[in-house]
Design goal:
Two copies of one chain form a homodimer. The first copy, chain A, is an alpha/beta fold. Helix content of chain A is 43%, strand content 14%.
Chain lengths: 459, 459
Amino acid sequence: MHERLASILGSLLLDGRLPIHARLPSERSLAEQLRVSRATVANTYENLRGEGLLVSRPGAGNWTTLPARRNRGAAPLAPGIRSEPGVLDLAIAVPPPALEVVTAAFGWAVANLGPELAEDQRLNGHGYHPAGIPQLREAIAVRYTERGAPTTPDQIMVTTGAQGAVHLLARQLVTSGDLVMVERPSYPNAIDALRQANARLVSVSVSDGSWDIDQMTGVLAQANPVLAYVIIDFHNPTGAVLPAGDREALVREATRRSTLLLVDETHVELNLDGAPMPPPLAAFDRRDRVISIGSLSKVFWGGLRVGWIRATPELVRRLALERRSVDLAGSVVDQMAATYMLTRLGELLPGRLDVLAHRRDALLAALEKHLPSWSPTRPAGGLSVWARLDRPMSTALADAAERHAVRLVPGPRFGLDGTLERFLRLPFALRAEDLERAVERLAAAERTILTDAALRRSA
Amino acid sequence: MHERLASILGSLLLDGRLPIHARLPSERSLAEQLRVSRATVANTYENLRGEGLLVSRPGAGNWTTLPARRNRGAAPLAPGIRSEPGVLDLAIAVPPPALEVVTAAFGWAVANLGPELAEDQRLNGHGYHPAGIPQLREAIAVRYTERGAPTTPDQIMVTTGAQGAVHLLARQLVTSGDLVMVERPSYPNAIDALRQANARLVSVSVSDGSWDIDQMTGVLAQANPVLAYVIIDFHNPTGAVLPAGDREALVREATRRSTLLLVDETHVELNLDGAPMPPPLAAFDRRDRVISIGSLSKVFWGGLRVGWIRATPELVRRLALERRSVDLAGSVVDQMAATYMLTRLGELLPGRLDVLAHRRDALLAALEKHLPSWSPTRPAGGLSVWARLDRPMSTALADAAERHAVRLVPGPRFGLDGTLERFLRLPFALRAEDLERAVERLAAAERTILTDAALRRSA
């Protein structure tokens, strides 16, 4: 009995559903609530202490905690400097390169470079465009307008990928010690950029494919963060989409509390099933509370380093100045290639979505076959599946997978505090046959963990 | 008499040769030293107070200071978001685009993109190369080795321009409050990046085309900064080159004091007169105290956003990780174009240097003709002339020039503390005819300032 109870409490904690440093009831009080003997609760707490999940101070109380080795917050979510032959990389969620689109786009860019290189005071022959080249700013503004958020080019700033956008905005908008709301799970590199601006972070949970809008607006009302970073269009990593009504409620509360909403839309064009999407968050914004960021790196090729920010013309001007000490400006040729892609999106996207949908289905089929006890999401868009494991073993699995030539990022890296041990992000960017091979290796890695655990128990 | 004395002291201060917040001698003591009457000194100090250059507290002493309006430290050194037709831009020092080289390099890049886009685990099909694409790291290492600093590719990290390099290094190497040595004048955007890492800055002077090596080593020995940022190959903005013997002395002292030397070599290939150059600073380094940064943006085209860092393999690995929260990686196509340029440098550079040398000479001839009382440097390389003006009026001149459709960055922007009012950086990147036109407008702007001043005096 006490083992089962300890296991339930431990799971709640490691999944992030029970917060860390939360005070648990006293033994007597919990015994009463659960109608079990006090000895059962005492043994439960003893078990939790043994696993490093609980600290108790006699007379003071019991607090949840995490064992030191689970807290791998610093694990890199970055591709290796060199890729290793034979290693299947599930650590990064980037699309496979769209060979034909990329070649056509860059070919067009080079063929049309003439005016950009003209040494003419009326043009920008020097090649520095802190806010982006005019054609691309125009194309991005048109795309927002099409999606339902009327936009002018002076509201657009082009950045070095979406990561460059988050980095610039974190520097500009966050003062040391400011409170920032993020989702749990969320995109680790964005979290890192906010942390490096010395933000204090508070998280709201995205679980079972949805947000708790009351929890979100409650945190805005009570904690009153200066900024909230959200990914509501094919959320990374879960794939969830925030419904229109909740979008409206979120903007309303943020407007009331003067919180800026930073919405990361890097996945929005990856609508694999073609289901109708709610309007973009910016469409609900009347008071300049919404700042949107986007990218083409997640659509056609990671090597294209083009992202952007949609904000007020005033903020765009400030960011363009701020950028002079960061990277001055972005690649002009990449921006021209992005202009080609964006102005032909309707024609170029369907082939892309077919490839990705096929790979998603291949990954889900492989999981069903080789790891049937896991519960993966079936995302309608984006680049990854978020799988619920049998038990809290994400970090152990990532370690074991490395020995089976699969690179993984353990679930806790997507949270703030070492929880989410029961989850794993599985990108479906690799070829179908490589995805099946990777899942086979994962199943083998899981068996070694379970065997090790069984051996330890019997020892 | 007292007016001349006040003018001399005022000039020393505004040129940066007399520090701010320096204590001046008492009236009596200065009168004795200069063998003038005490009344003359009293009137001199009164004049300086009137110009906002001196604060005095009776019984306590006299300190140099600066009037508030001269301190325009925040003026942007960045191209405008939009270029304005008819405005001649002398605010940025970027090369004119090398039309043929750029077109050929990007054409080659696109034609050879195939392997980079191959969806193959052995290659990096995802397009993210945090440390740079292997071919370019190799080409950069070869170039350092040719210049006299043997280098392996794992010592090279490719960045988003040289500015991206300074930004990453400032974040990685500077802890809040650390002391960093810079030159005066120096490159403002680098200074900004160091300031934003909360460095405390101390400066050593580069004047009349040379460094005072004893002052430099003295600051290293006494103030013991963690880092020194220097531009010793065609210094920006003066064009000066540090001789080999001084390089050796600088590295020796930095090694003794455990100071890291960050040497900005972005101008090193712009050797306009083809004079033999001293070995690179890294060639004198035995203890990993030298970190070098370079770029191709200042050679062929500003729109090519490729810079790099040469450091230890260990630091390169750390920076590649650090980068994940900044911009993840750089443009692959830009890096391929840079590889083309760098591996054919011997063939592509001469035509480039001819163009720039011609423009430098055109600028100097125009200054000689229209502003003969200014004293410009005649730099053997780089992209700009550093001109000494008749009087401390750089900020006023930049304001007046704007009304004559010329963009300038006033001299104080290249220092730390609002001094350098007697100097002006003049890039020679524009076409010869535009340079002459710009100098004509500057002469007109100067006349309006002098007329205004004369009118004020007679009023």
